[in-house]
Amino acid sequence: MTDSLISSAYSQALEVIAAVEPRIAEATRQELADQRSSLKLIASENYASPAVLMTMGTWFSDKYAEGTVGHRFYAGCQNVDTVETLAAEHARELFGAPYAYVQPHSGIDANLVAFWSILANKVESPYLARMQAKNVNELSEADWETLRHEFGNQRLLGMSLDAGGHLTHGFRPNISGKMFHQQQYGTDPETGLLDYGAVAAKAREFKPLVLVAGYSAYPRRVNFAKMREIADEVGAVLMVDMAHFAGLVAGKVFTGEEDPVPYAHLTTTTTHKSLRGPRGGMVLAQEEFAADVDRGCPMVLGGPLSHVMAAKAVAFAEARQPSFQTYAQKVADNAKSLAEGFLTRGANLVTGGTDNHLVLLDVSSFGLTGRQAESALLDAGVVTNRNSVPADPNGAWYTSGVRLGTPALTTRGFGHEEFDTVAELIVDVLSNTEAGTTKAGGPSKASYVLGDGVADRVTKQSAEMLDKHPLYPGLVLS
Ligand SMILES: *Cc1c(COP(=O)(O)O)cnc(C)c1O
Q1: Residue-wise over 39-54: b if at least 16 C-beta within 10 A, else e?
Q2: Residue to probe by mutation, ligand 1, list 45, 115, 168, 385, most atoms within 8 Å of CB
Q3: Does the CA dihedral 78-79-84-90 come out positive or negative?
Q4: So which residues are the catalytic ones?
Q5: Using an 8 Å Cβ cutoff, are 239 and 268 in contact?
Q6: Confidence (pLDDT) at 475
Q7: In the structure, what pLDDT confidence band is assigned to residue 178 with cuts at 50, 70 and 90?
Q8: How, if at all, do strands 210-214 and 237-241 pair?
Q9: Which listed site, 81, 111, 378, 452, has its alpha carbon 20 to 30 Å from 117?
Q10: Number of C-alpha atoms within 13 angstroms, CB side, residue 240?
């Protein structure tokens, strides 16, 4: 019943789209075909349910609703209020958070909201108080300069990009590295693991206003109680960005000191990664910060994406089902199977393994850069992304690593055996790929030569697994 409803709904929607711009309808069909036929190992991607996807395609997209529930700058927001209230309520229940702000359009937006909330809450600025009473349009350039001075030079300590941190955690070229005076903590050069003693020492010396924890490419769990202790000792606000692992928190794989929500003053996240919701962001906060976070709009946001907030509510309702906990546990178990698959075949993993949803494969032992490995794998239908390893000799563009995550294929139903085969296929590709040469004949970090027949062999083996675990099994487009 549901299958045929979904099939006819999407088939008809594509017909409606094709009547206006057939090339977009065609690209949409092709995207489904491509996602169905490739081995998606990108650690930040997933497959949302048809209910979540469909919720995004409605007239809620047409409604402006700047402000907060019951306090909007536009008329006629009663249904958006229902949506936002439900999304926030599900989020608070799901994560046990005192307060949830579901308006951010993305993970980066969520982090900007959190940063400005911390500044507004913690930085004493008589000038800011005066400014808030004024019409912003009347501020002169000199006013802005004073404000920048009073707000500026606040300190932020975050995890470095090559240790697995995110751009928004103080990386120089990102706004977070410009609006804050930033320093970074890394991982232990021997073990690749977070060294809490070293983080504490750096925090004592640097005395940051904001301590950021969380990562995009660190294959281990973090003890957030320890991070909070460090923050408390130096009087910092602890902000945890759980964009990557929110699904493991929601699914109760990370509990106790591994659950950031009770320990962080503010927890930010995306909703589309392991959490398997629509593309978007969210901020969870302790009461102390709620009023500041609530001013996300107009502070850094404009109108919320009401259709996406609706889809967040649907996704959170799904994540509150017991089946989501089973899913999250499988995501972590499968990452272990993938890691074991590599280790038994002699490959090197950063930190020697994983205890979350991702592994970071160091491809230098294959004589390749991350860029070459990523391209060769793609030729064989294996979709990954290259990633720096700690102290990467090849820098952030070519890199020496490939990051692989299990959330997406776990949604398709892959288990232990399949992930062992995935490791086998990847090792097959990489050990049959040679680094190429530049036009001048020197070693190239980009070009590569994939051995004859390897792509065909690997594509055939992955097709067998993909056929056994189809994406959206009941969905047939006419
Ligand atoms: C993905 C990610 C983000 C950014 O999310 P977008 O929705 O792409 O803006 C922020 N922080 C971390 C840790 C992430 O992994």
Answers
A1: bbbbbbbbbbbbebbb
A2: 168
A3: positive
A4: 64, 66, 241, 270, 273, 279
A5: yes
A6: 95
A7: confident
A8: parallel
A9: 81
A10: 27
Residue nearest to atom 3 of ligand 1 (CA): 107
Which residues are bridge partners to 443 per DSSP? 437
Q: Are 367 and 438 in contact (CB under 8 A)?
A: no
The partner residues of 155 in beta bridges, in order of sequence, read 181
**Which ligand 1 atom is nearest residue 244's CA?**
15
pLDDT at position 314, please? 98
Rounded CA-CA distance 219/348 in Å is 13
- CA–CA distance, 363 with 412 (Å, rounded to integer): 27
Helix (H, G, I), strand (E, B) or coil at 446: strand
Name all domains of the chain by residue range, CATH numbers in brackets: 59-319 (3.40.640.10), 322-468 (3.90.1150.10)
The answer to whether residue 1 scores a pLDDT higher than 60 is no
CA 83-84-88 angle, to 5 degrees, is: 120
Residues 224-273 have pLDDT tens digits of: 999 999 999 999 999 999 999 999 999 999 999 999 999 999 999 999 99
Interacting residues of 372 by C-beta distance below 8 A, sequence separation 6+:
363, 433, 435, 436, 445, 446, 447, 448
167 is in an annotated binding site: yes
Q: What is the pLDDT of residue 130?
A: 62
CB 162 within 8 A of CB 192: no
